[in-house]
UniProtKB/TrEMBL annotation:
Gene Ontology molecular function, alphabetical: intracellularly phosphatidylinositol-3,5-bisphosphate-gated monatomic cation channel activity; ligand-gated sodium channel activity; voltage-gated channel activity
TM stretches of this protein: 59-76, 97-115, 135-157, 191-216, 268-290
SUPFAM superfamilies given in the database record: Voltage-gated potassium channels (SSF81324)
Protein topology in the membrane: Multi-pass membrane protein
One GO location term (cellular component): lysosomal membrane
Name of the protein in question: Ion transport domain-containing protein
GO biological process: calcium-mediated signaling; endocytosis involved in viral entry into host cell
UniProtKB keywords: Membrane, Transmembrane, Transmembrane helix
Keyword Glycosyltransferase appears in the UniProt entry: no
Organism phylogeny: Eukaryota, Metazoa, Spiralia, Gnathifera, Rotifera
Keyword Transmembrane helix annotated: yes
Annotated ranges, domain Ion transport: 68-298
Length: 407
């Protein structure tokens, strides 16, 4: 992309937009389209090229492919789950990669994740990276996974039975997915409210487990031919009673637990009815309501923050376009005078030529239909003057909020 030179006959000057300013405006416009924060470096020029390369579709798809490969490794790692049937009595030979290939593949993936975290830190600066918990967590989890991988190299794939890095792999899926990040942040902010309801559920199950052991004590058979009390089979001791009531509360196995006791005495249904009414229809409903309300509030706040980042990026893009190099017309005759009088300043006018804005829009990675719509809208607003002010620019950029399918 080359510089743009425009003669201004009204002011008797020549205005110039450098390639660096144009690329900065392009980057900010792409940030606005993708709801990205503008808290990143804008100079020198190679930083902008690296930034655009990192957020390009090809690079992000490559990163997604690497994360997918790491997640799919679990199917062919020891103990392998890749078999024709799940019956352990049949097909005992399972496809498993050699240990060296497994460890080397994981090592390459972790190195790429390190590079990804380092690139993000370098692009936004160390000061801003310290404020990003996802970047800090990325370094921490990748380091833990690398240490665990080293132990696997020492003890072997089958000799090391506990692999912590296997449990940490879903984290990288959350790193590349904005939706997963929103879900994790929503859970983090609603943790205390969910914890309070969970404690109430625990007390509720504990209380009714004690009552169940009193109502259904272990019965002794006086004779071998005597039929055992079916109502006591699910309440033989406290751990089993607690587990069975949790199953009764969280799954649909109601007949398995309630009917044996009901077959002994129909009045026992009162116990299970009270337990399910309080636990399932009161506490579980309260749990769902709290989670939905918290997620709704978080989603609303997230959308507001995203729109704020977009508006801020649009404003920063326009402010960049207002900055230009000015050469007075009287100094256009000699090269020395041109060099000494070359200034970078903000013009008192608050407009930008349509040619410059068109070059910025066409040079961005926005979808082609959106580019055409923005250029046509701005040309219609600019009219014969071919000058675009902030109000025109901001109104045209509302097209970014439309439901345009990303290519």
């Amino acid at each position: 992309m080359s510089d743009i030179m425009i003669d201004n006959p009204h002011g008797g000057i020549r205005e110039s937009w450098s390639e660096e300013h144009l690329v900065q405006a392009i980057v900010l416009l792409e940030d606005a389209y993708s709801f990205r924060s503008i808290e990143h470096k804008l100079s020198p020029p190679y930083i902008l090229r690296l930034y655009r390369l990192y957020w390009s579709k090809r690079f992000q798809r490559l990163l997604t492919f690497i994360v997918s490969c790491q997640l799919l490794l679990i199917f062919i790692q020891y103990p392998s789950s890749l078999s024709r049937t799940s019956d352990l009595r049949q097909d005992r030979t399972r496809l498993t990669l050699p240990c060296g290939i497994q460890l080397f593949t994981e090592f390459v993936c972790l190195i790429i994740f390190y590079i990804d975290a380092i690139m993000r830190t370098y692009l936004i600066g160390l000061k801003n990276a310290r404020k990003k918990p996802w970047i800090i967590a990325n370094f921490l989890i990748t380091t833990i996974s690398m240490v665990d991988l080293i132990f696997s190299c020492i003890f072997g794939c089958q000799g090391k039975t506990i692999n912590i890095r296997f449990l940490l792999r879903p984290f990288y899926m959350a790193v590349i997915s904005q939706e997963m990040k929103k879900i994790f942040n929503s859970l983090r902010k609603s943790f205390l409210q969910i914890l309070s309801v969970t404690i109430l559920l625990g007390i509720h199950v504990y209380f009714f487990s004690v009552i169940g052991m009193i109502l259904f004590p272990p019965a002794r058979k006086d004779s071998p031919s005597e039929r055992p009390n079916e109502g006591t089979k699910y309440f033989p001791d406290f751990p089993d009673a607690l587990l069975n009531l949790v199953v009764l509360l969280t799954t649909a196995n109601n007949p398995d637990i309630t009917l044996p006791a009901y077959s002994k005495n129909r009045l026992y249904i009162i116990y299970f009815a009270v337990f399910l009414t309080i636990g399932l229809y009161c506490l579980m409903t309260l749990f769902t309501v709290i989670k939905m309300n918290t997620f709704k509030e978080f989603f609303t706040t997230s959308m507001q923050n995203s729109l704020f980042r977009r508006r801020l990026a649009v404003r920063a893009c326009f402010d960049i376009l207002l900055e230009r190099q000015v050469i007075p017309s009287s100094s256009l005759t000699t090269t020395d005078d041109t060099t000494t009088s070359l200034l970078t300043q903000r013009i008192t006018r608050t407009t930008t030529p349509m040619l410059v804005i068109t070059r910025v829009i066409n040079g961005s990675d926005l979808p082609e239909p959106l580019k055409t719509e923005l250029v046509d809208t701005l040309k219609r607003y600019a009219g014969e003057n071919n000058e675009v002010g902030w109000d025109m620019f901001a109104t045209a950029m509302l097209s970014l909020d439309a439901d345009v399918q990303k290519s």
